[in-house]
Write a structure and sequence with these properties.
By secondary structure, the chain is α+β, with helices and mostly antiparallel strands. The protein has helices at 19-46, 109-121, and strands at residues 59-64, 68-72, 75-79, 82-86. It has one domain. Strand 2 and strand 3 (75-79) form a beta hairpin.
């Protein structure tokens, strides 16, 4: 008989023994990337008529912000948010802010609502 009372916790950031969870994380990452990309394309289309002094498009894609992880109900999901560069200086800058991924939060709202409940449960 085994007298071990230590429970083994699964590390959500590491390699999961559950392949279904890994598929869900990959699907969530891909779906989130597509949604943010659609937001960016919409912004670029709305401002496509704006030009700089040389006649070039005022807004251009400018790579991605550093990858970060957002904690969700299925564990951490890595995300990369694209950047936009405004070529016009001195005027009001047009910036890309994703409505799905605000700049600073690292947890999904469902996880934030769950934390106080888990704390009370002990």
């Amino acid at each position: 008989m085994k007298d071990d009372t230590i429970l083994r916790l699964i590390d959500p950031a590491g390699i999961s023994p559950d392949p279904l969870t890994e598929i869900l994380r990959k699907g969530a990452r891909d779906l989130l990337a597509q949604a943010v990309e659609a937001e960016l394309c919409d912004l670029l289309a709305r401002h496509a008529h704006l030009k700089d002094s040389a006649g070039r498009a005022r807004l251009v894609r400018h790579g991605h912000l550093p990858e970060r992880e957002v904690m969700t109900g299925i564990g951490p999901v890595p995300v990369k948010v694209p950047r936009v560069r405004d070529r016009v200086r001195g005027s009001e800058k047009i910036r890309f802010r994703s409505s799905l991924l605000p700049p600073y939060p690292r947890r999904a709202k469902s996880v934030e609502e769950l934390l106080p409940w888990l704390y009370l449960k002990g």
